[in-house]
Write a structure and sequence with these properties.
The chain has three helices and twelve strands, in the order H-E-E-E-E-E-H-E-H-E-E-E-E-E-E.
């Protein structure tokens, strides 16, 4: 018997993950972004990573057309930013949020725990999503506590074991 989508989602919610904002800049110069946690490293040499984006998402065709994106890993203090970028119908998600253009021109959010500015290397279709593989052309990081996500809620992952 096949796994139901609801059971799959419920089981996946038990996987603790970090929270990111994926940003890009369109051909028209407008900046775009969305909250995502489907993000992983691919290789260190050359530095590459992947993001998975639903093909019905507004930003999906923008990443493909722009050929660039930036993954901003959020700190615990940036939960409000994650919530703003996750909401639909928000006209200007960037508002008064400080950012600067990375090497590709994609927005790097000030205060992020780390960021990975990428050029688009490959696209792969998988079910309802596209796996975008990016070559990292610039990255940065700072000390801090990551914003976590587990079982449908934001979490504080600052507790160390051992």
């Amino acid at each position: 018997m096949p796994v139901s989508p609801n059971d799959f989602k419920a089981a996946m919610r038990r996987f603790a993950t970090g929270v990111t904002i994926v940003t890009t800049i369109g051909e028209d110069g407008h900046v775009h972004g969305f909250t995502a946690n489907a993000f992983a490293s691919v290789t260190a040499d050359p530095p590459m990573l992947l993001i998975c984006v639903n093909r019905t998402a507004q930003s999906h065709p923008l990443i493909s057309a722009a050929g660039r994106f930036c993954v901003n890993v959020l700190t615990l203090e940036q939960q409000g930013v994650a919530e703003r970028f996750a909401r639909t119908g928000v006209e200007d998600r960037f508002g008064n949020l400080p950012w600067h253009p990375g090497t590709t021109g994609s927005p790097v959010l000030e205060g992020s725990l780390s960021y990975f500015d990428c050029t688009l290397a490959e696209e792969h279709t998988a079910g309802t999503h596209t796996i975008f593989v990016g070559t990292v052309v610039e990255c940065g990081f700072k000390a801090g506590t990551p914003l976590g996500y587990f079982d449908g809620s934001y979490r504080d992952f600052s507790c160390a074991i051992g």
